[in-house]
Amino acid sequence: MSGTGASRDGDRPPAAGAVERVAEVGFDSGLHVRAATAFARAARRYRASITVRAGGTAADGKSVVELLTLAAAQGSRLRIVAEGPDAACAADELAGLLAAGFEEDVP
C-alpha cells in the first residue's frame, strides 16, 4: 500500500517472496485507536512493507488510520503480509502482538 487509503484487495494472494501470518485479534475492544497505534509503531520499525487484510479490505500496517478502517473486532482473523528484507521477523512480531491482546501494554 502506498498510503492512499485502504483498498478492496484483501483477498488477493501474497506476492512471491512475501511472508504471511494469520492472527486473531485477542483483545476485548478489538483493534481500536490505541492498539492500532501500537501496531503501526511496531510495524514502522521494520523495512518490510506490511499489509494487513481483513475480509475484502487491505490496509497499510504502518498507518493507524488505515488499520482502523478494517474495523477488526475481538476474534477477527487478520492476514499480515510482509514483503522485504526483514519480512519474517516483522510478520512474526505483529501476529504475536495481535494474538496476545497487547491492549494492556499500550501506553
Structure description:
The protein has one domain: 2-Layer Sandwich (Histidine-containing Protein, Chain: A), CATH 3.30.1340.10. The protein is α+β, with helices and mostly antiparallel strands. The protein has 3 helices and 4 strands, in the order βαββαβα. The radius of gyration is 12 Å and the shape is globular. Strand 2 and strand 3 form a beta hairpin. The N terminus is likely disordered. The chain has a 4-stranded antiparallel sheet with strand order 1-4-2-3.
What layout of secondary structure does this protein have?
Elements: E1 19-24, H1 33-43, E2 49-54, E3 57-60, H2 64-68, E4 77-83, H3 87-100
Antiparallel strand pairs: 1-4, 2-3, 2-4
CA-CA gap between termini: 27 Å
Task: Tell me the overall shape.
Answer: globular
How many alpha or pi helices?
Answer: 3
Oligomerization category of the chains in this entry: single chain
Across the major sheet, the strand order is: 1-4-2-3
Spans of at least 5 consecutive residues with low confidence: 1-10
Name the CATH homologous superfamily: HPr-like
Number of DSSP E strands: 4
**Integer-rounded radius of gyration:** 12 Å
Major β-sheet profile: 4 strands, antiparallel
Q: What share of residues is helical?
A: 25-40%
Helix-strand pattern: EHEEHEH
- The CATH first-level class comes to Alpha Beta
Quote the beta fraction: 15-25%
